[in-house]
Specification:
alpha/beta; 2 domains; two-stranded antiparallel sheet; 19% strand
């Protein structure tokens, strides 16, 4: 795939020098979201990954835009992208491959069917591993091979070694930093082997956007809703997050929650019912009165 040079200022709101961009766009390139608002520090880390072939690990609260940040950078660089989710049930054979029995010229033969990692490794693809802290130990040690300096993958099943394509990139996202989940928000996550964590070249944290940025996103995506209403939604989210920090409540309102709320409100035209549908109904019944007090302060 042919690459061209572009000025970073033409793609993002800050200077990162010249960037490499693929001239053509394949089916694996994510769709560009023209309303997307980038976090500069996170975007710089991701661009370092693309430009200098560095492994980038992004952690942060749910709904803060970790995976979408990588996808939207890839979209602007025309870089093909594949996302896999380590949901705790993905096995080593699903990632690496397995022997399959098929018919060839009327005879049964055994063929090795490659998994997603060997397929991605051979191509100019950005592999995004979501829920990295939920992976099983046997799966994590497969991924560890990709984090070595040369990133070669040894296929014992095939007695072969796969060398990564020069434009293969790897990113990971997680809700925790690999030390377990002290908040209790993320059941199913595991501590990450620190020797493996050390192999990531860049570790960056993505927090929720500042209120003015969240309001900017909502205004761009939902122009049919009055700005004062959107501003009150963002204010409520800030109150909930502060309550979580203070230890008064146990559920956070993410940027994704606000977007869902705003989208439901645009359909229902009922601010309280759409809040209940989008957020309140998933909260602890013993804490609902606190969320409703916050709501009444804003609406």
């Amino acid at each position: 795939m042919e690459k061209i040079k572009v000025d970073s200022k033409s793609l993002f709101d800050f200077d990162f020098g010249e960037l490499n961009k693929f001239r053509s766009k394949s089916d694996l390139v994510p769709e560009t979201d023209d309303c997307y608002v980038f976090d500069e520090n996170t975007t710089r880390a991701i661009l370092m990954g693309f430009e200098h072939n560095l492994k980038v690990f992004i952690n942060g609260y749910h709904g803060s835009g970790k995976s979408s940040h990588v996808e939207q950078v890839a979209a602007r660089l025309n870089w093909p992208c594949i996302r896999i989710n380590l949901d705790g049930h993905i096995t080593r054979t699903e990632l690496i491959g397995r022997d399959t029995i098929t018919l060839s010229e009327g005879k049964q033969v055994t063929l090795f069917q490659e998994g997603i990692i060997p397929l991605a490794l051979k191509q100019p693809i950005a592999l995004i591993i979501d829920e990295y802290d939920a992976g099983r130990p046997d799966v994590m040690f497969v991924i560890q091979q990709l984090l070595e300096t040369n990133g070669k993958l040894t296929l014992l099943e095939q007695n072969s070694v796969i060398k990564p394509h020069k434009h293969f990139r790897i990113f990971a996202t997680a809700n925790t930093i690999g030390l377990g989940d002290p908040t209790g928000l993320y059941h199913g996550t595991n501590p990450i082997n620190q020797a493996q964590l050390d192999r990531w070249n860049i570790i960056t944290n993505l927090d929720f956007m500042p209120p003015d940025k969240e309001l900017e996103v909502l205004t761009l995506k939902l122009s049919d809703i009055p700005k004062d209403t959107l501003k009150s939604m963002v204010t409520l989210a800030q109150l909930i997050r502060q309550g979580f920090i203070n230890g008064d409540i146990t559920i956070l309102m993410s940027t994704r929650n606000i977007l869902n709320w705003a989208q439901n409100y645009s359909i229902l035209k009922d601010i309280k019912l759409s809040f209940d549908y989008s957020f309140l109904n998933k909260c602890d019944i013993l804490e609902k009165h606190i969320y409703e007090e916050f709501f009444n302060k804003c609406f």
